[in-house]
Model the fold of this input.
Amino acid sequence: SDAIYAYLKSVEPVKQLNRPHDLSFPYNNRSLILGWRTLFFSEGEYQPDPSKSAEWNRGAYLVEGLGHCGMCHTPINALGGNSQSDAFKGGLIPMQNWYAPSLTSNKEAGLGDWTIEDISDLLRTGVSKRGAVYGPMAEVTYNSLQYLSDEDTRAMAVYLKGIAQDSAPDVAQASVPPSEGSLLMSLGKTVYDQRC
Done:
């Protein structure tokens, strides 16, 4: 950061007025932000949980704050707000038509049965013995998570493991009639063709 500051101080200043914003309604109405903030924003700093380890608290800080993992992995309402009671239970990512799976339910992608190492590998590389990331999460790994230190990746894994169920509940196997099975296979092929 010192090098960037030194460089910026060496550049000749330019006088230029900012362009007015050109957002369309309703995004151009700044007073609506006040309403949204009143409903969904809680100002504050991260407060460590003294009953948890320093590593867990570091992971919570990274996952809840800087990583803002809940923005994708928590369902949101029509106004873009989310509920703390539904945190990390999975959600549809607006405008991308992509579902970010639940991190708490082992029926989806819950991490309760995963080892800390498997979660760390997935965050760091996008691939682990237990699975791989796709879509927007692959971009997060490529553009951000791969650059974390091993300690920070492990701290995130420790925190995420702590919010997951301890073990997968027994799930009854669903039986699909053959007529519906072929429909599901063709839908699966369409998804694969479009996304892979």
Q: What stands out?
A: The domain at 46-169 is CATH 1.10.760.10 (Cytochrome Bc1 Complex; Chain D, domain 2). Helices lie at 2-10, 31-40, 54-66, 70-73, 116-125, 135-143, 150-163, 178-195.
